[in-house]
């Protein structure tokens, strides 16, 4: 548990439901795919958190400005809930007469200040009327701690410690205007060094691949407003085996799009197809999915939300650094690249160089893997998967 106690865990939201196993691959009718090749997207598991390095004790002074917020990878205004939590923390710091310290995974508050803050945030939590408010507070607090704890330490673009910044090695690429990726990210993945969702806006830009933080109202409203503008026919979630009728990339309809690669204005007029990538750990992705489904049903009155599965996803290079039984999962960026490859196989989309865009994502994954590997070697950490997971290896 990172910054909330078990009694105020987000798990209250889905305590009665067993965690689903989100598979990106649809089962192949013949021959059946072995379990280890049935991959789903995922970030990293809890066990890896324990071995992540502590944050140095550096925090900048003062509140988070709108500009500082945007430099982390979003064009949204600074969320009001995040700003409020930051302000509370700074006020508490002033009253306590001692510096706040953060450390470990998720920028946990450290030292004497921790107990004081813990009491205070529990008290706030108790006053919140419903589960949605509690969720929003949980998200805001997670994000506020990460913002303060990462100041002056992480590169604001690549989310790596500044001495390992990989930005100079990353190339950019235009994403075809007929599609847009939404990174629906769990707060615990925000500012994580080995998060791969961030690669998408690093490669394609924050307009083509916007970040939407789970439980942050401003972000979620921006995303859903975009969905309502484009219409429900142009929204697709990469979260398979949930729809009554499972869909794959070949079921997507591009009828409304101008399939001409040299009429960009007309493409924009029609609006892109919105692909939502759930960017969180295995268990957190279930909460992300539930929240998406709730809002979909509230807006369009339908229980069945349009999910698609990928069929040709290859193992993510990130697996090499992820000590988890992850042979049946893959990371968010690899899911995006897999989707682009499948779209590239659609003959009517052949002119849009989607394969090239998929390669750009894969290159960025290689760059991230190299940067993380270099760092781990320097810090004397293992770069292979833990022995206990090797039984799952091919
Ligand atoms: Zn950087």
Automatic annotation (TrEMBL):
Q: Which residues cross the membrane?
A: none
Q: Please report a single Pfam family linked to this protein.
A: DTW
Keyword field contains tRNA processing: yes
Q: What's one GO BP annotation on this UniProt entry?
A: tRNA processing
Q: What EC number(s) would the UniProt record show?
A: 2.5.1.25
Checking SMART domains in the record gives:
DTW
List the molecular function annotations (GO) for this entry: tRNA-uridine aminocarboxypropyltransferase activity
Q: By its UniProt entry, which InterPro entries does this protein fall under?
A: DTW, DTWD2/TAPT
Q: State the residue spans of region: Disordered.
A: 15-60
PANTHER family in alphabetical order: TRNA-URIDINE AMINOCARBOXYPROPYLTRANSFERASE, TRNA-URIDINE AMINOCARBOXYPROPYLTRANSFERASE 2
What is the protein's given name? tRNA-uridine aminocarboxypropyltransferase
């Amino acid at each position: 548990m990172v910054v909330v106690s078990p009694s105020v865990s987000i798990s209250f939201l889905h305590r009665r439901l067993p965690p689903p196993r989100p598979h990106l691959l649809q089962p192949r009718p013949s021959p059946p795919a072995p379990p280890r090749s049935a991959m789903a997207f995922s970030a990293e598991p809890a066990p890896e958190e324990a071995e992540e390095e502590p944050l140095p004790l550096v925090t900048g002074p003062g509140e988070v400005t709108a500009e500082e917020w945007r430099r982390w990878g979003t064009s949204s205004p600074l969320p009001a809930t995040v700003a409020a939590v930051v302000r509370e923390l700074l006020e508490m710091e002033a009253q306590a007469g001692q510096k706040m310290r953060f450390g470990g995974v998720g920028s946990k508050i450290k030292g004497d200040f921790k107990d004081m803050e813990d009491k205070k945030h529990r008290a706030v939590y108790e006053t919140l009327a419903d589960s949605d408010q509690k969720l929003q507070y949980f998200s805001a607090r997670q994000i506020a701690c990460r913002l303060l704890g990462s100041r002056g330490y992480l590169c604001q673009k690549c989310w790596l410690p500044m001495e390992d910044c990989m930005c100079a090695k990353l190339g950019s690429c235009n994403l075809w205007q007929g599609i847009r990726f939404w990174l629906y990210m769990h707060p615990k993945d925000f500012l994580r060094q080995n998060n791969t969702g961030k690669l998408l806006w690093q490669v394609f830009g924050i307009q083509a691949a916007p970040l939407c933080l789970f439980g942050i109202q401003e972000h979620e409203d921006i995303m859903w407003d975009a969905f309502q503008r484009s219409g429900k026919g142009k929204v697709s979630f990469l979260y398979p085996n949930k729809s009554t009728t499972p869909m794959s990339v070949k079921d997507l309809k591009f009828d409304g799009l101008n399939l001409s690669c040299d009429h960009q204005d007309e493409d924009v007029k029609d609006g892109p197809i919105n692909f939502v990538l759930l960017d969180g750990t295995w268990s957190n992705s279930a909460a992300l999915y539930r929240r998406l489904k709730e809002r979909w049903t509230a807006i369009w009155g339908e229980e069945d939300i349009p999910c698609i599965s990928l069929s040709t996803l290859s193992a993510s290079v990130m697996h090499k650094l992820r000590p988890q039984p992850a042979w049946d999962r893959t990371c968010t960026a690899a899911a995006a690249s897999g989707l682009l490859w499948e779209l590239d196989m659609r003959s009517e989309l052949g002119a849009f160089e989607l394969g090239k865009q998929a390669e750009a994502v894969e290159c960025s994954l290689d760059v991230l893997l190299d940067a993380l590997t270099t760092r781990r070697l320097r810090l004397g950490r293992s770069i292979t998967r833990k022995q206990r997971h090797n039984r799952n290896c091919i």
